[in-house]
Design goal:
By secondary structure, the protein is mainly alpha-helical. The chain has one domain. The protein has a two-stranded antiparallel ribbon. A hairpin with a 2-residue loop joins strand 1 and strand 2. 34% of the residues are buried.
Length: 227
């Protein structure tokens, strides 16, 4: 169990470290990391794991960390840059879906014996793919809009806008994805409560990292803060 908490901390630390690099070398580092995490989450989500007695996709840590990235972008670069990252991640997801379909459909070499395993890991039903894309786009856009709304009204409360935006957005993501993907196939309430409780835990983990970046004062006044 302790290693899972260590993995959560390590993933969030990588995100924070990328923000430090972005402050010096450009926001592209943050957008690139965001797209990488979004695409990675969709690749590893097919493995189901156990955490705190709940069954979850293995992507839960990676995907939950993307909400810290949009909060960093919103806080230091403005919502416009955060929305750019969200759309870049969406296009990355579409490219992944198309590429996986092509790779699965492509006739394998006669000596290659891994086709069944390859398909078992990477193939998703069209319903799950659609659910993932819809839930991603709605929840991530909400996170950006919500963060900006809370920041305007409570500019001194970093913890409030970080948690208020992420907690609601994670809820939207969980409810939309599970409902669209599994309605009529599995009981939804247990799946939603289990996954959301773990996402909530990870969301609370990311607040200290955002505060640490704020205290470093490495982001200049010239950052884009327009809406």
């Amino acid at each position: 169990m302790l290693e899972v908490y260590a993995w959560i901390a390590l993933t969030l630390a990588v995100v924070a470290g990328t923000a430090v690099l972005a402050a010096r070398y450009g926001v592209e580092y943050l957008i690139g990391m965001y797209v990488a995490l979004v695409v990675t989450a969709n690749i590893i989500t097919s493995k189901i794991v156990l955490f705190l007695g709940e069954t979850l996709p293995a992507a839960v840590i990676v995907y939950s960390s993307t909400f810290l990235l949009t909060d960093i972008l919103s806080e230091f670069y403005g919502p416009r840059m955060a929305r750019k990252a969200v759309w870049a991640g969406f296009l990355g997801n579409v490219a992944l879906v198309v590429s996986v379909f092509i790779a699965i459909s492509w006739q394998p070499a006669p000596f290659w014996e891994g086709q069944e395993a390859f398909e078992a890991v990477l193939r998703n039903t069209p319903r799950i793919v659609l659910a993932s894309l819809v839930a991603y786009l709605v929840s991530q856009q909400h996170d950006v809009i919500s963060y900006a709304w809370w920041k305007r009204r409570f500019p001194a409360q970093l913890w409030l806008r970080n948690n208020a935006s992420t907690v609601v957005s994670q809820g939207i993501d969980t409810v939309l994805f599970i409902t669209l993907a599994f309605y009529g196939s599995f009981p939804l309430a247990g799946l939603i409560i289990g996954q959301y409780s773990v996402k909530l835990l990870i969301a609370l983990f990311d607040t200290p990292f955002l505060y640490a970046l704020k205290r470093l004062s490495i982001f200049g006044e010239g950052q884009d803060s327009s809406s």
